[in-house]
Every structure is written in structure tokens, then in C-alpha cells.
Design a protein that fits this description.
The protein is of the alpha+beta class. The protein folds into two domains: 192 residues, tt1808, chain A (Alpha-Beta Complex), CATH 3.90.1570; 63 residues, no CATH class. Helix 1 crosses helix 2. The termini are far apart.
Length: 300
């Protein structure tokens, strides 16, 4: 029996279940979702670069209708951040991720301009989904996040885990660890879509600007049934990281709210995600039928 199945079926043994075992079980869960899985220390790379460069090559396939020089320029731009706050850099990257990156390049003595896509939102299988544990990053300090989720080489989600068997250790400590990472290895978070904190009994997701109380659970895998189990970490990870749903969240359900003084990054809650998609589908059907889409009540 796999570690993943043991964890799911033997929660009574939680007192003997340490952080390393939990990390391994989550890695297997991601594999079951179709993600490539690697152990960070086995990958030869520049630890100062948080991107997974091997997967980044997929951008040439996604943009195979473009001049290779355009993709070269895009890869150059997404590694050249200049000055600015973490929020400013992250907001810029989210714009690139959701809408593509505008590049200017020279071809045959003429300056050209085009957009390069970082994710193929129309063709799921054109993207590479990878999860890596123990991903070392060297910046102001050397840190090793527990699990990092990549799409096309971009480290979009950082997962910080805490042992479900250790006393005086919980998701609050995981949250504090994530905030510490943002201070000492900020280059990793330039590319961050959202973060996850989990001690198996509680799993929540939130953005780089979110306070701990704004990190949210995810209580359903497909919107048809809401789980209220105490230790249902599988619902959380399968609910968010199903490939199709994951890139839908990346494209349509993360936004920055910006005023003159602050930048607040917002990630949808699970009930908002399913309600909005249901409303959109209902509206599209109504266009072709009785033109009655119904009423959508929501809280903000």
C-alpha cells in the first residue's frame, strides 16, 4: 500500500505521522493528479534562480507560431525585475501570467512587437505541471521550502507544511514561515500565484498580501459536495490542484485590488469559484434558450 493510501485510511495513526511522511504523501497525491514529481536536491541548477529552467523550454512549443527571438526576449524579461516592491513585481508577473507578455524584438533588421503566452489556457496538455519538494533558493538567505508547484517552469505555489504529530506546531507557524520566506528569499515570490499552509488537519490557501485570517480552506473537489471532515487534506489539494481547475483559478480567479497606497492580492474562496462558474454556464445556456439566467447572490 502506498504512503498516500496509508495516510488517507489510517488517520488514527496521526500521532506517529511526521512532517517528512506528510510531505511524501502530498508528493504522491500530486503524482496521482498527473504532475511530474522531483526531489529538489537531485536537480542540478543555479540555486539563485527560482525558475525550473528545464520546464521553461515549453514556452517555445506553446508559442511555436512566433519567432523564436520573441520567446527568447520573454524569458529574458521574466528574469529581469529591476527595482520595486515584492507586491509590484508580483503584480507585474500576474499580468504576464494571465494575459501574456508584450515583447519587442529585432528580426531581419526590423523591430517587431508581439505577445508571448506563459500558459496555454486553451490547451491544457500543452503545459507542464511539476511539483518539487525541498527546492533550495539562495537570496538574502538560503531557504528550502517544503513543496513548490510549477507550471511551465514558474514556481506558482509555495506549500509550507507542519507535522500533524508535533505539539505546539500548527498552521500559524507555517504562515509565519511563509512570511519569513517572503523577506529572505523574495525572488521566489515574484512568481507566486498563492501560498498554501497545512498541518494535515488544517489546509488553507492565501496570497502574499493576505493576513493569516484571510487564508481560506477548500472544502470540495468539484462543487457537488462540501466536505466538513476534520482532517480532509485530500479534498483541499485535489480541489485546488486538479489541472484544469488550477489554471482556471490562475487565469480568472486571482486579482490585485490597487488604490493609491496599497496593493492587495485576492484569491477566490472555493464557494465563489464554483458559484461564478455555475452562473457563467447558466448565462451561456440562457442565451441559447429562454434568456433567463437566474439570480446569483454572493458575499464579498
Amino acid at each position: 500500500m502506498s504512503i498516500y493510501n496509508i495516510v488517507c485510511k489510517e488517520l488514527v495513526c496521526i500521532s506517529f505521522y511526521n512532517e517528512e511522511a506528510y510531505e511524501k504523501s502530498l508528493m504522491e497525491l500530486f503524482q496521482n493528479l498527473g504532475y511530474n514529481s522531483f526531489y529538489g536536491p537531485n536537480i542540478e541548477r543555479d540555486y539563485k534562480n527560482p525558475l525550473y529552467m528545464d520546464d521553461l523550454e515549453i514556452l517555445y512549443n506553446i508559442n511555436n507560431h512566433l519567432d523564436k527571438k520573441a520567446v527568447d526576449k520573454a524569458i529574458e524579461l521574466i528574469q529581469d525585475w529591476g527595482i520595486g516592491s515584492l507586491e509590484e513585481k508580483n503584480n507585474k508577473f500576474m499580468e504576464y501570467l494571465q494575459n501574456g507578455i508584450n515583447v519587442n524584438y529585432w528580426s531581419n533588421g526590423k523591430e517587431e512587437s508581439t505577445y508571448v503566452k506563459l500558459i496555454d489556457y486553451d490547451n491544457l496538455d500543452n503545459n507542464i505541471f511539476t511539483v518539487i519538494n525541498q527546492w533550495t533558493v539562495v537570496d538574502n538567505e538560503i531557504k528550502i521550502p517544503d513543496i513548490v508547484v510549477f507550471v511551465n517552469g514558474f514556481p506558482l505555489v509555495v506549500c509550507e507544511l507542519k507535522s500533524p504529530s508535533r505539539e505546539n506546531t500548527d498552521t500559524s507557524e507555517a504562515y509565519n514561515q511563509l512570511k519569513k520566506y517572503m523577506q529572505v528569499i523574495p525572488t521566489l515570490f515574484n512568481y507566486n500565484a498563492f501560498c498554501v499552509m497545512s498541518d494535515m488537519s488544517i489546509s488553507k490557501a492565501g496570497t502574499i498580501t493576505a493576513s493569516e485570517d484571510r487564508f481560506m480552506e477548500w472544502k470540495t473537489t468539484d462543487g457537488s459536495y462540501e466536505s466538513t471532515q476534520w482532517a480532509d487534506f485530500t479534498t483541499f489539494f485535489e480541489g485546488i490542484f486538479d489541472k484544469k481547475r488550477f489554471i482556471d483559478i490562475l487565469k480568472n480567479f486571482i486579482v490585485y485590488s490597487i488604490d493609491s497606497t496599497t496593493k492587495i492580492k485576492i484569491l477566490c474562496a472555493y464557494h465563489q469559484y464554483f458559484a461564478v462558474n455555475k452562473a457563467v454556464n447558466s448565462t451561456l445556456k440562457a442565451i441559447d434558450n429562454d434568456h433567463k439566467a437566474g439570480v446569483f447572490w454572493h458575499t464579498q
